[in-house]
Amino acid sequence: MRRKIVAGNWKMNTTPEQGVQLVKDVLKNLGHACTSVDYIVCPPYTHLSEVVKVTRGTAVQVGAQNCAEETKGAYTGEVSAEMIASLGVRYVILGHSERRQYYGETSATLNKRMTQVYANDMVPIYCVGETLDERESGKLWDVVKAQIEEVIFELSDEQYHRLVIAYEPVWAIGTGKVATADQAQEMHAFIRKTLAAKFKDAAAKTPILYGGSVKPDNAAEIFAKEDVDGGLIGGASLKAEDFLGIGKGFDAV
Ligand code: PGA
């Protein structure tokens, strides 16, 4: 049985105070939600310390949205994996399409970040996904395969065991256009097959999350698919009720 995960990517939203309130609201209502789900919240760096404190000993874990590719030193404005890990953060999102698109992240820079995350005993949530053009021109399989091979295939077997993948079609992020459950399943199965070419049976244990306009009313259908192990949620993770409502999608599975 693979773990079921609902992770919230808050992106550049909320002040620290609002973020703490949001996570408190999640915790307050979590008792009523499905407990077989691992919830992860990924606030901005500025909130991590407080959010870790508030969630300590609860079912909610904390992730960062990125980390620096270098260990330490003269890199103005960067935040290292060691700094993040020292706060008690367990996950780091890497390779989100917004980072690839706006900040020029490539497989080469992501390999370095992966190394940093593992060196500090955290777990990467590695994002892959195609643009609308790539889907429409039939390049989606090659694009996603390359995103996996160039980064994940560089991992050791030991590192591979601590990995979450998120499939986020770029055309579905923040657009309200959600992939159909069948489109999600088709790509998730392809990703798992790609992973199995190198990591063999271990690929069956890797959680693969779907991301892109997941809402409480479409989560259950997508989560019901065999290779979909949860969601990476943007907009809907900013409301405690919606975030938990998405987790309830697993109740219907
Ligand atoms: P969305 O974002 O749920 O707002 O589409 C998902 C993501 O970017 O992780």
Q: What sequence of helices (H) and strands (E) makes up the elements?
A: EHEHEHEHHEHHHEHEHEH
Q: What is the number of beta strands?
A: 8
Shape: globular
Q: Which regions contain 5 or more consecutive residues with pLDDT less than 50?
A: none
Give the proportion of residues in helices: 40-55%
In terms of structural class, how would the helical and strand content be classed? Answer: alpha/beta
CATH superfamily descriptor: Aldolase class I
- The CATH architecture can be named as Alpha-Beta Barrel
Task: Spell out the key features of this protein.
alpha/beta, 11 helices, globular, 253 residues, 8 strands, TIM Barrel, binds 2-phosphoglycolic acid
Description:
The chain has 253 residues and is α/β, with parallel strands linked by helices. It is 41% helix and 15% strand. The protein has a single domain (4-252), classed as TIM Barrel (Alpha-Beta Barrel). The protein has an eight-stranded parallel β-barrel with strand order 1-2-3-4-5-6-7-8, surrounded by six helices. The structure holds 2-phosphoglycolic acid. 2-phosphoglycolic acid binds at residues 9, 168, 173-174, 211-214, 232-236.
